[in-house]
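dumping this here before i forget
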Amino acid sequence: MRPDARDLYNNAGNSLANPYNGTYPWVTPPQAATQISRRGTIAAPAYGVQALITSFQVPQAMEAVITHIICKFDGSGFVQASGAVIWTIDINRPLGAASQGYNPPDFGSIITQLGDFLTFPFPVPGGIRLSERDTIRFKVTTANPVGIGAPNYITAMALGWYFPVKLAFPIQNFGG
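structure:
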C-alpha cells in the first residue's frame, strides 16, 4: 500500500485532516526511532548490466523514511548527466522484475552524482516513505565510456530512520 493511502488506516481515531495531530514521524524522528545508515559499494558492472549496490527491508511493525541519499562514482570516464552511469532507487522490485514495485518520484533514473561524504548527503524533499516489510534497492547500470571493474567504484547510501507503525485500532482500556 502506498504511504499516502496508508495514512487513512493509521488514523487512530483522529481527524482525517490531521491524522498525526501535528507530529509527523516522517518529518521529525520520534523517540522510538532507529537510525538508518545503509551503504554499499561495488566495482562498476559490465556495460548494460543492472547491478544491486545495496538494499534493506523495513522490519515488521515499523515504517521508515529515507531523508538523505548519496550516489557516487569514483573512477575514470564519468561525465555528469551523460547517462554513462544511471542509479535507480526502487521499492519492492527485485533485479530483473520490471513489472513489480515502483520507483519513488524523481528517483527512477539518476544520471548525476548526488551528495558527498565530505560535504553533505543529498536531501530528499519530503523523504521516501516506506511501509513495513518494504524493500528499497539502490541499483546501477553503466555505459561506455566509464571504466568497468576495479578501480572504478559505485557507491549508494541511504540515511533516515525507522519508526513504530501507528495502530489503526489502538488498544483501549474498557475497565473491568
